[in-house]
Specification:
The protein contains 14 helices and six strands. The protein is α/β, with parallel strands linked by helices. The protein has a six-stranded mixed β-sheet, with helices on both faces. Helix 5 runs antiparallel to helix 12 and helix 12 runs antiparallel to helix 13 (310-328).
Amino acid sequence: MRAFISGRIDLTQAEAVRDLIDAQTEYQTRLASRQLKGELSNYLQPIKTDLLEIIVHLESAVEFVEENLNTSSIETLAKHIAGIVKKLKRLADSYEFGRIVRSGVKLAIVGRPNVGKSSFFNMLLQKDRAIVTDIPGTTRDSLVEQASLGSIPVHLVDTAGIHQTSDIIEKMGIERSYTAMVDADLVLQLIDGSTYLTDEDKNLLTKCFENPVPFALIINKADLELKVTPEDLIKLNPDKIIEKNIFTVSAKTYQGFDELQKNLVISFFQKDLSSQEDTLILDARHFSLISNTIEELHEGVERLREGYSEEVALCHLHLALKKLGEITGETTIEDILGQIFSTFCVGK
């Protein structure tokens, strides 16, 4: 905090120190390091300069020109502001992926009993966390662990096998499995590739279709002779099941593990991390302020087009500039600073 108060770093760089401390993956560390070097600040600076020039132009018009701006002048101004909005929108659009990179994604592993869910869970963790046996129904309750997948932090949920049962305890576990499917960011349905598809597999697949959460299909036990292929699954519902969202692995031998890590990220989050060098918004505070800035810029242009005076439009443009200043800490009130720095873990 002293470095920020003394002006050696701005607020985004101070927040980057926190993110660097909290980083769990190499990619998170790389992004935090880039922000610590001023990447976001450097991106915003020319935008603030352009906006300030527009404000100065309008202020001059108010002071020295008696008539309001004509239609041509308003549209020229609107074009300049649209250029600023385009740059800010690119930042705002990056938050959907940035939020996942920073906070992680919740993956629910589901399937009928004995398809290898717990072995798959252990493979993603790269350690033996879940008990694995050949006895169906070994997992009766959900297990939750943290891991990383393609440099993205993930919250893995290993669920009880979903099937018809009269056992009260098993029923409770299955209900939690369904809840995990709804709460997840992505559902991974495991299928035992060494046996033909069962009615329980198909019934659970129907649940995946009905669930609004995106899903991938994992054909497990690739170390054995496969009796289920991606083509077999696509035939069940070509509109819902596409080849790029089907993965063939062996949780026992780790066959297909590297491809799964890489392509899950690309398929569902539309990002190839090996080439991802664009500035990303990771922080909800930054996203909110950029969204507010865009709104104020739109409002300023609309007021001019509606025939309001330049003073009205200037109120919105000044607010937009203030919001941008809050991102880097130029116009941040003390209460907000206290809230931000309270998230630092001094003991680390």
